[in-house]
Amino acid sequence: MTAPDSNGTPMVRFENVTKSYGSFVVLDGLDLEFGAGEKVAIIGPSGSGKTTVLRMLMTLERINDGIIWLDGEPLTHMERDGQLVPANAAHLRRQRGKIGMVFQHFNLFPHMNAVQNCMEAPVTVLRMPKAEARARACELLEMVGLGDKFNHYPGQLSGGQQQRVAIARALAMRPKVMLFDEVTSALDPELIGEVLNVIRKLGSELDLTMLMVTHQMGFAKEFADRVCFFHSGKICEQGPPEQIFGAPENERTKQFLSAVLEAT
Ligand SMILES: Nc1ncnc2c1ncn2[C@@H]1O[C@H](COP(=O)(O)OP(=O)(O)OP(=O)(O)O)[C@@H](O)[C@H]1O
Question: For a substitution probing ligand 1, which of 18, 23, 24, 217 has the most ligand atoms within 8 Å of its CB?
Answer without folding.
Answer: 24
